[in-house]
Amino acid sequence: MEFAAVLFDFDGVLVNTEWAIYQAWLRTFQTHGHDLPLDVYTRCIGSDFATWSPKTHLEEISGLAFDWHQIDAKRQEEILRDLTGEGTMSGVIELLEQLALTGHRRAVVSSSSHHWVDGWLDKLAFSHHFETVVCRGDAPQIKPAPDLYLEAAKRLGLEPASCLVIEDSLNGVRSAKAAGMDVWVVPNRVTEGLDFSEADRVFPSLVELAAAL
Fold first, then answer.
1. Are residues 77 and 161 in the same domain?
2. Are 89 and 206 in contact (CB under 8 A)?
3. N or C: which end of the chain has fewer CB within 10 A?
């Protein structure tokens, strides 16, 4: 199938940020005597806490209220510490260079903030590979709503059906499908146990995905 553009999710697809974020949340739960299994935590992957909130969940199972401002600040410090030296996911740059050679347009579409996504793109010096970056705040709703992907297609001047989405989460898959786009999934360490039967194709890595384009 021919696509005019490839739209990339960010966390867990372009940069391996998901595991560090999960580990920081897991430590928060364990500090208060509770576990946070992956099959529970992944409900919020690719979206926000309106979909499912680890904060609400911890308060419900512990019966306690927390000073989340202080905890959030500490957790963010831990995440950034754990991501020191992190680079792009394996195969990312090669895939982006391949798409440039074949004339495919490229964009990032993420439920995360511009501060987070643009910061990483600049830090790892690969923002030039993308024509546009669509993040939280650029459309009325984030994933699993289709708004962010529809905004990306609009910015590129393309019909949604001509865009291929690369995702790693169920919320992302549902967002892309609701936008009328095909979606290929490359699960990561956090999402590899999920059922991605809603996706059009699933690949073990970006290397195998690149070979299918």
1. no
2. yes
3. N
11 tagged catalytic: yes
Active-site entry in 9, 48, 122, 168: 9
Question: In this structure, how many other beta carbons lie within 10 angstroms of the beta carbon of residue 31?
Answer: 10
Q: Are residues 74 and 130 in the same domain?
A: no
| Phi-psi category of residue 142: left, alpha or beta, with phi > 0 → left and psi -120 to 50 → alpha | beta
* 128 phi/psi in degrees, rounded to 5: -65, -15
Q: Are residues 191 and 135 in the same domain?
A: yes
pLDDT per position as a tens digit, 176-212 = 999 999 999 999 999 999 999 999 999 999 999 999 9
Would residue 9 show up in a list of annotated catalytic residues for this protein? yes
> What range defines the domain where residue 41 resides?
18-82
- Taking the complete model, does pTM exceed 0.90, yes or no? yes
Reading the block at residue 93, the tokens are: 């740059």
Catalytically annotated residue among 11, 35, 82, 147:
11
- The rounded average pLDDT for each run of 10 residues, N- to C-terminus, in the chain (213 residues) is 93 96 96 95 89 94 96 95 95 97 97 97 97 98 97 98 97 98 97 96 96 91
pLDDT of residue 109: 98
- Tokens found for residue 79: 């995440």
